[in-house]
Amino acid sequence: MEVPFSEILERISVIDRDIAELNRLKGRLPADRPYSPSIQLTFDKQINTLLNERVSLMELPILHPPLWLLSKDGVEEQDKSVLKERKSLLAGDLSVSHPNEQDVINFIREIPKTEIHLHLEACVNKETLKFLYKKNGVEVTDKEFEDKYNFKDLNGFIQVFFFVQGAVKEASDLGYFIDSLAEYLRSNNIIYCEAFFAPSKFIQNGLDFDEMVEVMVTRIRQIETKDGITIRLLVDVSRSFGPENAMNNLRRVLGVKHKEVIGIGLGGAELMGPAKDYAEVFKLARESGLRTVAHSGEDDGPWAVWDAVSLCKAERIGHGTSAIQDPELIRYMKENKIPIEICVTSNVFTGKYVRKEQNHPVRYYYDQGLPLCINTDDPEIFNVNLTYEFFKLYRFLDFSLDELVDLIRQGVFCTFHPNKETLWAAMEEKIDIIKLKYNLQPQKLLSAV
């Protein structure tokens, strides 16, 4: 149904005002009170909900749109005043010293991006989850849903993860998971993604690994053909089920011949299984040509990261928030070009080493020259998206717009994409066009000066 343009503008204005007010109130929270983290999370959830609503409003069909919203071909060439109005209203001027924050968010959203620390199960929206539970004959009330998502720590998050997995009763259900992932990627202009898939619980529930992979790969290929979005899978060998199960999962992966399944990741409750217990699993994976990554330093100290990079020889580290405690570790990771997969909101939610965005070590890591990529980890569970994840770096950690673009570039080179240079060249060309729209100098022009 088409909506009058004035109604959309009015609602967007209210949303922008509410977001500004919530950010102002959140900024006044004392940092040293025991109640502050939980209140801060409440603010974050509401802000993210409003941002998501704003995005959905921008996508509504408009009844009698104003002239300046039409394409350039629909405007008389000689009407310069209309063209000028159209340009000023379509995009804000980000060259000013204090640009409008919503213009910054819009700019980030439009830029093509990659994301490589993302759990498939945590990209399933609640509507899809409720549909699957109902389809499979399991009654779950709205209150039960909300109670599950109101967790307080990493173990609580893992229980939500199992709750999502509980909706799957047959391999074909995973096609809905991939569809939800694709919806999230499209809404944030993410053109390349590496997502974790954790099969252990599904296998325990009687599902066949190869059949699950076939379902997901089929949908991934359909999405790439339709939207040009590339999705690759990293199979989680998971600490939660022990080293023997991890080796079994690896052997299942070795039997898969699809290019969409590129490697393994070590996830699960970090304190339940040190990385050194999985060194043999990683050794076999490397020798077999698989890519290897590990969650580490999220709920344990820098010694855990050392085990992941020295014993398991993980190619990337997920989270790594405790690495800042060991300068030698930082030097080692920089010299060996081992990226850290940064997940700011996730780290604030789980709250082990980071209680608020301003204290996240990503600023220090970036200034030290560590290779980094920005990710959401679990967008539906944390009610966040990659656009706002980048905006938080701008808003709370003093990253400039140029630094955000540099992080997007770094993110490309942190991927396992086989042609990173080509991918980045195509992305940079689009980013330069978007920069012009927001009155920013394209990188190519800056390089020529």
Give the secondary structure arrangement, pairings included.
Elements: E1 3-4, H1 5-27, H2 36-58, E2 62-63, H3 80-90, H4 101-110, E3 113-119, H5 126-135, H6 142-149, H7 154-165, H8 174-187, E4 190-197, H9 200-204, H10 209-227, E5 230-236, H11 242-254, E6 261-266, H12 279-287, E7 291-296, H13 302-311, E8 316-319, H14 327-335, E9 340-342, H15 344-350, H16 362-367, E10 372-374, H17 379-382, H18 386-396, H19 401-414, H20 420-437, H21 443-448
Parallel strand pairs: 1-2, 3-4, 4-5, 5-6, 6-7, 7-8, 8-9, 9-10
Identify the notable features of this structure and list them briefly.
21 helices; 11% strand; two-stranded parallel sheet; 8-stranded parallel sheet; 449 residues; alpha/beta
Summarize the structure.
This protein is 54% helix and 11% strand. It is α/β, with parallel strands linked by helices.
Descriptive account of the structure:
- The chain is an alpha/beta fold and 449 residues long.
- The chain is 54% helix and 11% strand.
- It has helices at 5-27, 36-58, 80-90, 101-110, 126-135, 142-149, 154-165, 174-187, 200-204, 209-227, 242-254, 279-287, 302-311, 327-335, 344-350, 362-367, 379-382, 386-396, 401-414, 420-437, 443-448; strands at 3-4, 62-63, 113-119, 190-197, 230-236, 261-266, 291-296, 316-319, 340-342, 372-374.
- β6 (261-266), α12 and β7 form a beta-alpha-beta unit.
- α4 (101-110) packs across α18 (386-396), α8 runs parallel beside α10 and α11 packs parallel to α12 (279-287).
- The longest helix has 23 residues, at 5-27.
- The chain is globular.
Uncertain residue ranges: 72-78, 82-90, 445-449
Taking Cα atoms only, what radius of gyration do you get, to the nearest Å? 22 Å
- Strand count, sense and closure of the main sheet? 8 strands, parallel
- Secondary-structure-based class equals alpha/beta
- The shape, in one word, is globular
- The number of distinct β-strands equals 10
Proportion in helices: 40-55%
Q: Please state roughly what percent of the residues sit in beta strands, choosing from under 5%, 5-15%, 15-25%, 25-35%, 35-45% or over 45%.
A: 5-15%
Query: How far apart lie the N and C ends?
Result: 49 Å
Strand order of the largest sheet: 3-4-5-6-7-8-9-10
Number of helices: 21
How confident is the prediction overall: mean pLDDT?
A: 88
